[in-house]
């Protein structure tokens, strides 16, 4: 059986938490001092979502978010875009619409879009309310979640929501996806555990190499 593959891109202002969210999902880690010194092109993870096994290619930006001219090529072939704002940073929230516009102008409606209010562990100093975030998602017709890469809160469920929204070829006649979603999300102990990770890294001398990591690594749904 061939495993269907999907490109998922991460967008949003610098420092909203894109790299940290990916690291939490891939490796179940958080490093407050993480400073990427090399450009990571993408990280790949095979995950089980209900009765499907799919491979996600997670495209981080190594600072390209500052160079908007590069964004269209980055969005090419993306099946989903996760657009982050920082709940303690009003400007990052104000820029959400612009990022979503970029996705829609490059991909039209061929791309799932999810807005994520990042750093939910900093809720006491939030400047963007939950209802504002939800309203924005409703206005822009996207999915929405808050999440914390630091605590891990809602990270798996947001990736699961994105995965469930991805197109797939065959829908069984008796499939009830919303029911499956609720059951599995409310009881993580029943989650399937087929998973593994790899990433392509561009080293400082410009060479590319593949790195692998075994185990679940926080990516089982
Ligand atoms: N408290 C808290 N800090 C976070 C969280 N996610 C990221 N950060 C911090 O925010 C800064 C920017 O994160 P980073 O992932 O590099 O942002 P990027 O530029 O969008 O990739 C770093 O200092 C992170 O440690 C989070 O969920 N909670
Ligand atoms: Mg980053």
TrEMBL record:
Name the segments for region: Disordered: 175-221
Q: Which UniProt keywords apply?
A: GTP-binding, Nucleotide-binding
Q: What is this protein called?
A: GTP-binding protein ryh1
User: One short Pfam family name for this protein?
Assistant: Ras
* CDD domains in alphabetical order: Rab6
- Write down the SUPFAM superfamilies for this protein, in alphabetical order: P-loop containing nucleoside triphosphate hydrolases
Q: Which SMART domains match?
A: RAB, RAN, RAS, RHO
